[in-house]
Amino acid sequence: MPTQQHTPSSQSERTEPMYPPDEAARHASGAAPLLKAAWREWQSAFRLRTLWINFAIEDLRDRYRRTSIGLAWIVVSFALFVLVKVTIFGKLSSASGLEFGLFVALGFAAWTFISAMVIDACTAYLHARPWMLGSAVPYPVYLLQTVFRNWLTFGLILGVVVPALAWKPTPWTPTMLWSLPALAAYLLTSLWLAAILAPLCVRYRDLHHAVQTFMRLLFFATPILWLPSMDPGLAAIARLNPVSHYLALLRDPLLYNTLPLESWAVVVAVNAIGLPLGLFVYARTRREVVFWI
Amino acid sequence: MQLSAEHVSLYFPIPLGRDWQREQHASGRLGGRPFEYRGRPCIRALDDVSLSLRQGARLGVIGHNGSGKSTLLRTLAGLYAPHQGKVHATAPVSGIFNMSIGFRQEATGYRNIVLKGLIAGKSRREIDAAVPAIAEFTELGPYLDLPLSTYSQGMALRLAFAITTTFTHDILVMDEWIGAGDAQFQERVVARMNSVFEAAHICVLASHNKMLLQRLTDQCLWMQDGRVRMHGATSEVLQIHDEEVKQIKRRAEAASLPDRLPLPDGYPVIRVSPPARSGSVAVELAWELEEFNVGRIRLAVYNPANQQEQLMCTAPARGSRRTGEWVRPGFEFRIYDDRDGAPLGQVTIDAADLAPKR
Predict the structure, then answer these.
(1) B127 interaction partners in chain A (CB closer than 8 Å)
(2) pLDDT digits (tens, 9 = 90+) for B186-220
């Protein structure tokens, strides 16, 4: 539909195509036109932000509907987890109680987000099935909906953890600001990860369960309840586990005022591979997904 | 403005083994023909479908379940990308495909209006402006504040219909569920559709409801096994479709009967008796052929004067018929099996059979 007219939006009276001119997307063959069409779909999905923001909010509302404390459950369950874990695992750690508490809180906050994001990415398309079969909304809307929903939750948890830094044993320095680009790296990763996992989980239904199981195991291989400094074996595991580098990106500047250069190198490398891969998988599966779902 | 499909073919991959494919093919008429596409078993959901609609076109789509109606509509709306051929639309296409699709069951009616409006690409301001009209049309009143899970099917249908026809674009495609709902709502649907049709410049409507198609569309597309069986004026297509459906039904009924048993020699196929009361009735005929596995019969009369046979009626295997005073001695009544036209028996009327005239 190359000449679609946009219905005027409330913010500005633009006349842009509401949905991408998907004539090209539908009939594209060969890598370059497919990628181009995919890219246009992402662009128009970003323009449809009111849609995925509302979808994401509705998802959260659904989850906590008719509960008396609502979204507070996210914070409550997180706080209880951290409390119990610090109480029990603190006995095994050599670090001071306060430092270990913050270590666990920061690590578990990041882990909660990463784990939920990875698992939710698997069902981004599966849950959107009724919409996919009912409207011609560009698919990245469903991916952005999933990503945004997880960031809303993450934001709530960060809203509790960041003030807790008031008790941190080290001084506040500008290095702590390095946690902001860390969040940007998280965001980038969640986007391409959703673009890869969502279509593959539709095609291969085992993948969702495999990912869930894998994430459960990965929790123990990630330095959340233990410090890499406790044992050389554990340090080796932590180094091999990309998730621990993601954690370090956020935790090290906030807690230790250090910049984990090695972790940054790993995360940048992972994104450099993942981003084009995500775009490729998206473009390659875009036209097939609706038949698999 | 234009909506067209050029030689569109669409294949659904079958996520199951090939044994299924073979078995399924042997049974039923539903769905398309299985084949292999790029090494994977597929169903041909659409097979070389072409159509071209200009501004003002109102197209109805008919066909039995699984003939490709919904797939065609979804392809026209851009939800499916065809494997062969092209779909071309010069304006946004909006669609109503399935009433349960696209509602959030836990959200209120009002909230669903907003979400559906956003999907249709409307701004919050436009949506808020449209809410009173939607509320008025649905007659749901306070129910709009309740979650959709509390709605009955009919209520959800009202809401879905009102929302989609409000946020419609220039090209509208609608799937068959539109024929559901109570009679009063049906009238509202037709009225609303006529006004929507004035706004929508091209409309495609799939339905099993012939009355609805006749009232709302001027041309009709008959889908069969993913192919276009016929495309023409609505009344013409519906008539031919009707006839074929009836014929198939009759053939199926005949096929379900066991073979006819031979009639014993001298069996009185037609019994003639004078009528109980004299009057305008000349003679009464009766027959009883069920026990020989006859389904229906044809009754004919032969007039030796002009040597012509005339069909009187078709009737059940057991029955009777009174004839008028036109019967003369020498007339011959004949009975044929309606299934294959085989003669079963005849009787010649003589003067004694006829009731005495006053």
Answers:
(1) none
(2) 778 778 777 776 766 788 989 888 888 888 888 99
d(CA B137, CA B115): 18
Instruction: Select from A3, A10, A65 the Cβ nearest to the Cβ of B124.
Output: A10
Q: How far A59 CA lies from chain B's nearest CA (Å)? A: 9
d(CA A113, CA A190): 10
| Residues A235, A42: Cα–Cα separation, whole Å | 39
Contact B48, B8 (CB under 8 A): yes
d(CA A140, CA A282): 9
All residues of chain B having their beta carbon less than 8 Å from the beta carbon of residue A19 are: 78, 92, 121
Q: CA-CA-CA-CA torsion for A48, A52, A54, A60, nearest 10 degrees?
A: -170
Distance CA B94, CA A4 (A): 12
- Quick check: A291 and B12 CB within 8 A? yes
Instruction: Determine the residue of chain A that is closest to B99 in CA distance.
Output: A134
Given a contact cutoff of 8 angstroms between Cβ atoms, the answer to whether B221 and B60 are in contact is yes
The reply to whether residue B81 touches residue A7, judged by beta carbons under 8 angstroms, is no
For range A172-186, the mean pLDDT? 94
The third-level CATH classification (topology) of the domain covering B2-253 is Rossmann fold (3.40.50)
| CB pair distance less than 8 Å for B81 and A26 | yes
CA distance B17 to A52: 37
A1–B93 CB contact, under 8 Å: yes
pLDDT in tens, A189-243: 999 999 999 999 999 999 999 999 999 999 999 999 888 888 899 999 999 999 9
Name the DSSP class of A48. T
Instruction: Examine the pLDDT at B320 and tell me if it is beyond 50.
Output: yes
What does the pLDDT look like over A86-134, one tens digit per residue? 888 877 777 777 888 899 999 999 999 999 999 999 999 999 888 888 8
> Is residue B352's pLDDT more than 80?
no
DSSP percent split of chain B into helix, strand, coil, nearest 5? 35, 30, 35
B78 touches A at CB < 8 Å: yes
Cα distance between residue B80 and residue B71, in whole Å = 8
- Domain at B271-353: CATH code: 2.60.40
User: B82 and A54 in contact by Cβ < 8 A?
Assistant: no
Residue B255 touches partner A, C-beta closer than 8 Å: no
Give the nearest chain B residue to A62 (CA atoms). B106
Q: Which residues of B touch A291 (CB under 8 A)?
A: 12-13, 80
Query: Does B125 touch chain A if contact means CB atoms closer than 8 Å?
Result: yes
Counted across chains A and B, CB pairs separated by less than 8 A come out at 99
By the CB < 8 Å criterion, does B263 face chain A? no
Task: Give the gap in angstroms from C-alpha B156 to the nearest C-alpha of chain A.
Answer: 15
> What average pLDDT does chain A have?
86
Delimit the domains of chain B by residue range: 2-253, 271-353
A8 reaches B (C-beta below 8 A):
yes
CB A45 within 8 A of CB A52: yes
Confidence of residue B181 (pLDDT cuts 50, 70, 90): low
Q: Cα(B47)–Cα(B9) distance, rounded to whole angstroms?
A: 5
Distance CA A144, CA A47 (A): 11
Domain chopping of chain A, boundaries: 23-292
